[in-house]
Amino acid sequence: MKTWPAAKTHCVSMGSLLTTIHLREENDFVRTLISSNAWLGGNDIISDGAWVWDDGVEWGGFTSWDSGEPNGGDHEQCLIMRLTGKWNDDPCSKENVYVCKK
Ligand code: GN1
Ligand code: CA
């Protein structure tokens, strides 16, 4: 369990990134890997609502937001997958499991 920045640093230290998700198939696969809410490699830290992927792929393809999400404004800037495979914006300072992608 790590904060989002610490999780990201750990992935990078292994030559990987927090996982990004560009296809429904990737979303389904990552969901099979997790047993609690897990950080993904996306954030809107720079500007509220302007989501970016850590791998540099432009936001705007596949998304899997849960109903009502994202709802956190400046308080919830990091992307997390719920057990349902749906996404939430959550405070980056929370400690969660995470998935790296290489
Ligand atoms: C959580 O705890 P609450 O309901 O204020 C979560 C949000 C979700 C929300 C709805 C800090 O907020 O990211 O959008 O549930 N925030 C925290 O599921 O856990
Ligand atoms: Ca939220």
The 3D shape can be described as: globular
- Please identify the structural class as seen in this structure: alpha+beta
Low-confidence stretches are: none
Radius of gyration: 12 Å
What's the tally of helices? 2
Describe the biggest sheet? Answer: 5 strands, mixed
- Tell me the β content: 15-25%
Q: How much helicity do the residues have?
A: 10-25%
Describe the structure.
The chain is of the alpha+beta class and 102 residues long. It has two helices and seven strands; from the N terminus they run H-E-H-E-E-E-E-E-E. It has helices at residues 4-13, 24-33; strands at residues 17-18, 38-43, 52-53, 78-81, 87-90, 97-98, 100-101. Strands 2, 3, 4, 5 and 6 form a five-stranded mixed sheet that branches. Strands 1-7 form a two-stranded antiparallel sheet. The radius of gyration is 12 Å and the shape is globular.
